[in-house]
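Inputs:
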Amino acid sequence: MPGFKIVTNPADLVYLYDGSLAGFFCCVHRSFYERELPIDILPEAADQPSIYPRAYISTDQAKAEAVRASIVKNLSDRVIELTEHVFLCHHPHKEQKLLRFLIFAFGIGPKAAYMLGEDAVADVLEMEKHLLGEVHLLRGFIRFADYGEMLGGVITPKNFVLPLLAAHFANRFPNENFMIYDKTHKAVLAFQGGKLEITMVEEVEFSQPSEDELRFQSMWKNFYKTIGIEERVNPRCRMGHMPKRYWQNMTEMREYL
Amino acid sequence: MDIMQKLTILADSAKYDAACTSSGVTRGGPPGGKGMGSAVPDGICHSFSADGRCITLLKVLMSNACAYDCKYCVNRSSNDVPRATFTPDELAELTIQFYRRNYIEGLFLSSGVVRNPDYTSEQMIRVLALLRYEHHFWGYIHAKVIPGTASGLVRRLGQLADRISVNVELPSEASLSTLAPQKKRKAIFTPMAEIKQGIAVSQTDIVRYKHAENFAPGGQATQMIIGATPESDYNILRLASGLYTKYDLRRVFYSAYIPTVTDTMLPAVDTKPPLLREHRLYQADWLMRQYQFDAEEILSEAQPNFNPYLDPKCNWAVNNLHFFPVDVNTASFQALLRVPGIGPKSAKAIVIARRHSHIGMSQLKRIGVVLKRAKYFILTDDLPCGIRLNKQTMAKALIDPGSFSLGVEQLSLFDRPELKFLTDTKAPAIQEVREEAATCLASKL
Ligand code: SF4
């Protein structure tokens, strides 16, 4: 089923919006409605002086809902999922790439998300892959320490991965309280009394680890050292699987930095 | 002895075991609301050790105070090494504490033979039962079955663990009886057959009843040591292929032999582990499991050992040039899989993408096909008669860079006349070796 073709003309204009997904959907609404393809779409906070005129797109829940409903109706749930995923990526022009993808997708119909050879599609899939790859690595690389009343860990990811890590750890540790502090995005995922919450914060200070905690940390470090086979040492291979940027938050790796 | 010392000794004795995966099981969370633990189908790596291997499970022995005297093993009874044994409580507690801190996906438990196989297995079962029923731990557990364990105990292990394995240890019965005389062939294959049976029953029961008994949902695996004994790669691959069919194994692991003890029947202690050979075996194994290759297509009586310069798939391709070129817009999924540079993922993507539009080189690149290799074997819209370049260029593109990253010295392990020049003291620089390999290959194309 072919969708409806959206003709947009390149416009010398930058859209600014509030950085929320609803806000982005309103940018999509404006672009389709005005038939214009902005040069870029930026969250207000990331705006930098430039020669192009700005258009501030205010967030209107009704418009955002209309765009979402139209994607579900004319495209597919997979496109919604893809959009939500890409929206968590750190790519500086993710909004622009998403808009280009949506314009393309509406012109083609539901099968658009599977046209892997197309630039507009491949670009967003690439971003999603990067995001999901980071999520997968962090499921393994996060290190918790036991602070008595809860387990706590720190991450410094490129993408905003907390929403995609939440269910995994909540399912795994339903009877623990834990928090994961995302230092890059200044956000905390907290799981307390069985309830999940993500909040934005300035800074999180962890208390000093207890004797017992330090004992387990040193046993883990010791295990890590012991398990490597000297005759097979292969730093390139290790780095390929576990890039250095993760090491700072890993109990056993910090000392190798 | 404190638990830190025990951990060091018992992790050190377990480190040569190659199998460390936590895949094949899906469990959303602890059943019944108590405790902790889940499992994801692809497994999760929690760290990578200095040798670049994935660390996913707490891999330890229950005890290294072994009564057996397998010649190739550090823990053999005649070797003078420090001995330690975990109590079941210690090990269960350690697993839980590591798991809560997200260090591991679960436990990989093996053991030397303490007194006898049954006694050892009982100790291991106590650890697993403590974890499952006292701590309500539902993370991943891989347990090794000691050859010769009574069938009731094998059952119990299968009910408690996600994956169980019996090591075949060495690739032939002759080698087994010279190097591990206390391990009889029958003692290995009897539990293997029982496990196969247990898994089969639990799977049909799961179809029939809701509350069917769980039995090693992650399947059965095994491992063998490569390079301690004289079997050819072809022998090893055929053995693996036979094990896959006969015992429905999920995985066969290959472990390059690292000499730790001196013995006239074993390679000298300064022998380098055959890492390239091990790497080729994993590649070939992967071809059998994921690409529908037969062992006989990969190696043969006439070519019983791997080509050091080409991965097994490229090797098959250059020996079967009549099969190519493959037209990416029309070829079957199976035919696409035979093209060097196209894997299962990209073959699937090609099949999906070509339903919607014709495929050319740029689309293939987008899809993730390694064009550097694939382009010599395919036809596309914008490359209708295949690429014809000079053979030297093609040969260079096909040579496996992995052959060289594992170090030129690895190649000497192949110890074949045509490779003798590599072991010369005046060994040519890698670049030159590469050129020479390319020329040699080009002449065959
Ligand atoms: S049974 Fe053999 S291989 Fe296993 S620990 Fe004892 S000596 Fe080593």
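The first helix of chain A runs from residue 21 to 34. Flag for discussion at group meeting.
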